[in-house]
Specification:
alpha/beta, Rossmann fold, Dehydroquinate synthase-like, alpha domain, 47% helix, 11% strand
């Protein structure tokens, strides 16, 4: 097991009927900017519950943050922060709203000339404006980590950011919100969380027994709960397990002391930027071809995964490993997610070459846990996913 440090300061308030505690989590004299997405929170009652909990607090609203948080829209919110002298941010939404709020947290205190540099130059955020979250869509784990990904449509780019200053102060996780989530978004959330675990697990054995077992437990929980939550999102027990699994998939715990991959996400972000495909679906598109391309370096862990998670006991190492890849593809498809790029766009020819070029332009010569995934390898992975 590798050396590591682990700090996660986010306070989780989990369960139903917890929002009444929201005001007590705010600092004194808070001037809050409440951020949300397309307005679904006004249809499902979450908006009213939050506003009731914030009675007497100075609150300014900013809605309209899209599914891939858009830089130019966030610039408008940044202007509101400065104009209204905001000192606390509250994200009410899923991962996109929370990611957008993280960017604003960083940009609000950024002392450079152009806050775009936070993303373009990968500037680490040591201190951000404090913020909290009310999670409405389990998927990304952004409610309990310090990372974010922001899109700039005019440049067709989707870039990551992060740093220790971007942990939420608190996050409210109420499983009852799951009942109002559309089927497509439920499927996306399950696929996103599942792939988060894959990226931190599917590397090579390093003797980190507890991290492996934690990861395998999250895998199994998602697999078990997926058909139940897709059939009946109002099932509180299923919703609670779904929500907590998504959070644990990316709160930093299972990646400590182990190598991690993230190639699937790196390529997936480019597919979203180029073609506007849902983030989770880009991950399902890339997973199989990535694991087949990197089979020799991953087959030990793939076989372990096949045996422990999917119960595959027949065959040798390579047979089990290949069965694990197939089971992963079948899991995505069981959610109604197509795993081929050609199912999402007719304009996929040349996509592989464009993504290879972007990796070269950014100086990414070797990605993945061993640094062996070259831009040329990336092109092959994307071509296989056509």
């Amino acid at each position: 097991m590798n050396n590591f440090e682990f700090v996660n300061p986010t306070k989780i308030i989990f369960g139903k009927d917890q929002l009444q505690k929201l005001q007590s989590e705010l600092p004194e004299n808070a001037k809050v900017l409440m951020l949300y997405g397309g307005g679904s929170i006004k249809k499902n009652g979450i908006y009213d519950r939050v506003m009731e909990a914030l009675e007497g607090v100075s609150v300014t609203e900013f809605g309209g943050i899209p599914a891939n948080p858009e830089y130019d829209i966030l610039k408008e919110a940044l202007a509101v922060i400065k104009d209204k002298d905001i000192n606390f941010l509250l994200a009410v939404g899923g991962g996109s709203v929370i990611d957008g709020t993280k960017y604003l947290s960083s940009a609000a205190l950024y002392e450079g000339e152009d806050p775009w540099d936070i993303l373009a130059k990968g500037i680490r955020t040591e201190k951000g404006m404090p913020f909290g979250t009310v999670l409405t869509l389990p998927a990304t784990g952004s409610e309990m980590n310090s990372g974010a990904v922001i899109t700039r449509k005019s440049m067709k780019v989707k870039l990551p950011m992060g740093g220790p200053g971007l942990f939420p102060k608190f996050s409210f996780l109420d499983p009852t919100v799951v009942a109002s989530i559309p089927q497509r978004q439920l499927a996306n959330g399950l696929a996103d969380a599942f792939t988060h675990v894959l990226e931190q697990y599917m590397t090579y054995p390093i003797g980190a027994l507890i991290q492996d077992r934690f990861a395998e437990g999250v895998f199994q929980s998602i697999i078990e709960v997926a058909p139940r939550i897709m059939k009946d999102p109002s099932n509180y027990e299923a919703a609670a397990n779904f929500m907590w699994s998504c959070t644990l998939a990316l709160n930093g715990l299972i990646q400590k002391g182990v190598p991690t991959d993230w190639v699937i996400h790196m390529i997936g972000h480019e597919l979203t930027a180029l073609h506007g495909i849902d983030h989770a679906r880009t991950l399902a598109i890339i997973a199989e071809s990535h694991y087949l391309t990197s089979f020799e370096t991953k087959k030990e862990k793939l076989a372990q995964y096949a045996e422990r998670v999917w119960g595959i006991t027949e065959g040798g190492l390579e047979e089990k490993a290949k069965a694990g890849i197939q089971k992963t593809k079948e899991f995505y498809e069981s959610l109604g997610i197509d795993t081929k790029l050609s199912a999402y766009t007719n304009d996929y020819q040349g996509t592989a070459e464009e993504i290879e070029k972007r990796f070269n332009d950014r100086g990414i010569k070797g990605a993945g846990e061993r640094g062996l995934v070259t831009p040329e390898s990336v092109r092959k992975i994307v071509e296989m996913a056509y």
